[in-house]
Design a protein that fits this description.
Blueprint (H helix, E strand, L loop, with lengths): L2 E3 L10 E3 L5 H28 L9 H14 L6 H8 L24 H10 L1
Antiparallel strand pairs: 1-2
Length: about 120
């Protein structure tokens, strides 16, 4: 078990996160907060482009990538559904019905954060 000071999860003393378990509510909370930060950074990019159309761009992906990586570790995402959902499908917006299937060919729903969490937990 890995414990990191500064966060809390249900059933653990305040100030620690247990990387062997993250419940759906906590996962969705942090996923939403990471998305909000990414949108804020994009807002800065758009504002600078508006001031100067020749502006090359403003991106802060290092912190974003590490937050997403940490969240994937916390929920034990061995299939990289989280990366697929965020990076390849624009936070789930690009997911098409039946675009992801299990080994038996059954569709895996991934449209919502709740479905994403369930798919990660099923492995």
């Amino acid at each position: 078990m890995v414990l990191i000071a500064g966060w809390s999860t249900p059933g653990r003393p305040t100030g620690f996160i247990n990387f062997n378990y993250m419940d759906k509510k906590t996962f969705i909370k942090y996923l939403s907060e990471i998305k909000s930060i990414c949108e804020d950074v994009n807002g800065v990019h758009e504002a600078l482009k508006k001031l100067d159309p020749d502006f090359g761009g403003f991106y802060m992906t290092r912190a974003e990538d590490k937050m997403i990586e940490l969240l994937a570790v916390a929920v034990e995402d061995k299939t990289d559904y989280l990366g697929y959902w965020i990076y390849e499908n624009d936070w789930g917006k690009g997911i098409k019905k039946n675009s992801v299937t299990d080994k038996d060919g059954k569709p895996i729903p991934l449209k919502t954060p709740e479905q994403l969490y369930s798919a990660i937990k099923r492995g």
